[in-house]
Amino acid sequence: MGAEHADAEGGDSDGDLAVRAERARAALVREIELSGAFDADPRWRDAFAAVPRHLFVPYYIVGVPGGYERLWGQDPDPRRRLRWLEGAYADQPLATRMRDGELISSSSQPSLMATMLVELGVEDGDRVLEVGAGTGYNAALLAHRLGPDAVTTVDLDPEITESARAHLAAAGYRAVVVTGDGARGCPERAPFDRIIVTCALRGVPFVWLEQCRPGARILAPLSTGIVVLTVRDAGFAQGRFLSTSAYFVALRGAGGGEAGSGWAGRLPRSLVRDEVFRFVLTLVGEYGGVDAREVLRVWEREGRPGRERFGVTLDRGRAYAWLDDPAGPHVWPLRGSA
What we know:
Elements: H1 2-10, H2 14-35, H3 43-50, E1 59-64, E2 67-72, H4 78-88, E3 94-99, E4 102-107, H5 110-120, E5 128-131, H6 137-146, E6 151-155, H7 158-171, E7 176-179, E8 192-197, H8 206-210, E9 212-222, E10 225-233, E11 236-241, H9 269-272, H10 275-286, H11 292-301, E12 310-315, E13 318-323, E14 331-334
Parallel strand pairs: 5-6, 5-8, 6-7, 8-9
Antiparallel strand pairs: 1-2, 3-4, 9-10, 10-11, 11-12, 12-13, 13-14
Helix pairs in contact: 2-3, 3-6, 10-11
């Protein structure tokens, strides 16, 4: 304890920082491992143990009373540098870029990233498209697992893609970083075996199916959940939601737009605060156009089902959400996919 305090008081060398980062990264990996996120595919543990997250978040923004505070790795105050490093390896999302008071880019919570990567189900030789480049950290994890030529990451904002390229280079990883509208995919790099989306959607673009090989998997945040779709062909994909909640920065571009909350004032506050019901209400009510009271009646009649009982079907230009069975009594057209 005394040595660490002395480092914080008197400054730290590059060697000290590297040692602290390695220890913090190992602690983060242990925390993710204890959560069970690696159980289905322990190979991802090696990726999280190897990729230095702090190089992908050279600065980030934290909320403080009355506003925001910026923590960065080159701060002249050693205490603040230590806070930055500790935060970089905390199992929490980090706001990395704001514009006009709006969050436009972040680094997701590492344990959620691990869950998503495991559920993506990659195999050696797979080609992966990531929609939403963020800091480049997720692309680095994928590149560590699959190799540099297998990973393409796309983002609409050139500032974001430029920084993602710089972070990847600093960490010694290579991925193809493309500036473009992720809602349109990346046809010049297709076909893909997997598509992973790291920004919130209002619907799944059908053009992604056209850029996938048969049997490909698409993992995407929708409402406040994550749907895992299996692609049969260029016109059909289907799958269920994971049980976990997920909150991401909204996709910008042709497939963007955030969920509103016009229904909130028409329901009891306790229900509006219920995380699972908010997921159902956004998916079925807002995206599906079903009256909020009818959504509530179905949800309560069916035993307040969780996310994992819901699914999505994309079929020849039409999208549907469903409960339990895509051919069952509870199927709702979705208006966000195109």
